[in-house]
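cache lookup: miss for this entity combination. No prior model stored, computing from scratch. Input as submitted by user K.M.:
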Amino acid sequence: MRRAVCPGSFDPVTNGHIDIVGRAASLFDEVVVAVGINKSKARARLFTPEERMDMLREVCAPYPNVSVAGFDGLLTDFCQDNGIAAIVKGLRAVSDFDYELQMAQMNSSLTDVETVFVPTSPEYSFLASSLVKEVATFGGDVSGLVPDTVLEKLLRRLAEVRSEQGEA
Ligand code: PNS
C-alpha cells in the first residue's frame, strides 16, 4: 500500500490544491491531505484548522482514496506516525522550486521520506490562497479559483471580518 501526503495550510483550499490532490490520488493507493496546525501562525489565518479540514473533506469527497487530517509539529513525524512514504507538492513556477527543494532535502535528511513534485496545471500557475483572500477582500471575482462551497464560506467570513473591524 503506497500512502502519500499532500501537506499545506489550505487557508482556504483552492482549485489548484484540488488539482494536485486529484493527481496524487491517481498515483498513490492512499492520499492524506494534511493541514499544518502552526499555533504561532493561528492569528494570521482566516479559517480555523477545523474549518479548513471541513472544507477539504467536502471538496475531496469525490476521491475515495483521499482522507483529511491535521498535524502539529514536523511533517516528517506525521509521515512516520502514519506510514507515509511520500510527500506530494505542487510546483507552480521556478520561483517555488528553491524553497521546495530546500524543504524536500531537509525532510529527507530527517527520515527516508521522498518528496514528489507535481507541476501545477497551467491554468492554476498563478493561484495561491493568499492572493485569493486579498482579491476577494477588495471585492474581486475569485469564482472559478475556489470551489463554490469554499467561495460561499470565504465571502461570509470576509463579511464577518469587515463588520468586526467596523465595530472596533
Ligand atoms: O501551504 P503552505 O503554507 O505552503 O504549507 C507549508 C507546510 C505546512 C507544508 C510546511 O510549513 C510544513 O511542512 N510545516 C510543518 C513543519 C515542518 O515540518 N517544518 C520543516 C519543513 S523542512
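stored under new cache key. The beta strands are 3-8, 30-36, 66-71, 86-91, 114-119.
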